[in-house]
Amino acid sequence: MSSARLLAGSRLSLLGVLLASSFAASAQRADPAAPFVGVWSGVFTTQENEYWTFADIQCFVGCTQEFYDRLSGLLADPKNDNTPAFALSGQAEAASLAALDAMLTPLGKQVRAANKPENDPKFLNCQPYGFVREVTNPLPMQISRDGDHLLVRYEEWSLLRPIYMDGRAQPTHTTPSLLGHSVGRIENGALIVETTRVTPDLISDSSQAGHSGELMAVERYTLRDNPRRLELTLTLTDPATFTKPLVVTKTWLRTPDVELVQDTCSQQPGKP
Amino acid sequence: MRTHYRVLLLTLALVPLAHVAAHHSPAMLYDLSKEISVTGVVTEFQLGNPHMRIYFDVDNNGKTEKWLAEGGSRTQLMRVGWTEDEVKPGDKVTVRGHPPRDASQHLIHMEYLTLPDGTEQFAEDIRYDQFQERRRRPQEAQP
After folding, report:
1. Topology (CATH level 3) of domain B2-128
2. What is the ipTM metric for this complex?
3. For chain A, which residues score pLDDT lower than 50?
4. CB contact under 8 A, B21 and A117
5. Is residue A101 part of a domain?
6. Domain that holds residue A261
7. Which residues of B touch A43 (CB under 8 A)?
8. d(CA B133, CA A50)
């Protein structure tokens, strides 16, 4: 082979590499949701990670923004340096539960009083619980691309949740379901997901508060720290049960090495 | 009087289940500053979601007490090797963990389980005692 041909061949190879890189970069630019794709873990599968603060850990199953901010404030105050962190957590919990109680409508208070987990057939029969607790559950989740849309696979109950990203409107006649109907978009680098048509359920186990079928949920996922940390601000609007929107928060870390475990619990009705 | 007793029994029977419903921070329900160890015979084992449960009978000077131990999450325990046959009815086990804040309940937040062969294994999702002294304030991202 002549040196001229070798030179031409190597130039072609170089061109191919450059084109491939260019296409990959274009694809990355074309998909603003790409940074959210991957496996994300809460405290359970990353407990040794020094990144977590005590407030993050106490919020491992999601918590109200009120609780997180209050606890973070108590922990940041040097006057509390000699007070056990769990004691400060107790103070924050009591205050945030009182704040939640104050924002419940009469129906919200009825719902809260009626929620008796010991009587919950879903719990006793190993059936998945509802939207808010699923979205803030402490086990890992995997976000992947599904054509034009995103697909969230939760290890908790092995549930799959599509998030439609093509600009479609929320349906008005879809039968309500456990996880509802979700449409999403990328806005200034944040993943915004709006969910409606959710069947009534608890919002958390610690509060026993619940929402009605009129719930409008907006999840705002933001990435921080290159982008290692995924933060959720979940705003729950339900005039039937809350006098004002309730804001819940939770954080995950990117964990490409974590594999999701198949949860077969719900395949054993009557045997939790 | 008998009716009252039945109501009391029913109430006591229901209270523990309220604690084990779905995920929650054990600090809210248990006294993490104390540790107890309880030995008994398993009557039922559920590697359930959200929490694993062991129901067991404890001999208290000839009187049988019904206890419930609440451990970690189903898939998190499966991740580290637990199976649905980890414990069987009739097994004599020792549960080590935290007592409930209401000391009248026969309930324990299980951190460690000693099997009939003497093997002790971790039975929770996370080691809560390690977090007491964790960072209180955010810092810059780790490298």
Report:
1. OB fold (Dihydrolipoamide Acetyltransferase, E2P) (2.40.50)
2. 0.77
3. 1, 269-272
4. yes
5. yes
6. 34-267
7. 126
8. 12
